[in-house]
Fold this sequence. Notes:
Blueprint: E1 14-18, E2 25-29, E3 37-42, H1 51-60, H2 62-67, E4 70-76, H3 80-88, E5 103-105, H4 110-114, E6 118-119, E7 124-125, E8 127-132, E9 138-144, H5 152-163
Parallel strand pairs: 3-4, 4-5
Antiparallel strand pairs: 1-2, 1-5, 3-8, 6-7, 8-9
Amino acid sequence: xxxxxxxxxxxxxxxxxxxxxxxxxxxxxxxxxxxxxxxxxxxxxxxxxxxxxxxxxxxxxxxxxxxxxxxxxxxxxxxxxxxxxxxxxxxxxxxxxxxxxxxxxxxxxxxxxxxxxxxxxxxxxxxxxxxxxxxxxxxxxxxxxxxxxxxxxxxxxxxxxxxxxxxxxxxxxxxxxxx
Length: 179
């Protein structure tokens, strides 16, 4: 039986990263995000077709997330060297270009497994997106088939609903009253 993650402390992690400009390698841990909200998302592989649409859309919206005291971290099972090559490749040849957040390497696949998104028989992650609050509690998760990209607008809406501090009815939007 699958273990519930929402409402529990987010599984801890430490991974190698490459900066969004593709120039610096580093390390990141869940504890680095204490005191901030985190949109933590998995994608299957670098140099694929749906993934760059999601990653660049999240990067384009990074200022909106920052205004909500929220960081973004993307992760796949690829190495930081593959991430760097993808960031530094032009969009005309399937690259990402510059991003406003880092990409992490889950080359051991442990983090994808801990978050319940690893497709063991393929060795890649599903499209999993998690919102973790400033205290480290996992507040939201959505996992979908790798054929379908996620929605930046819905991620922003859910984040704002979680930050509203109240009960949010169906189709709640920022500015609407809580129940």
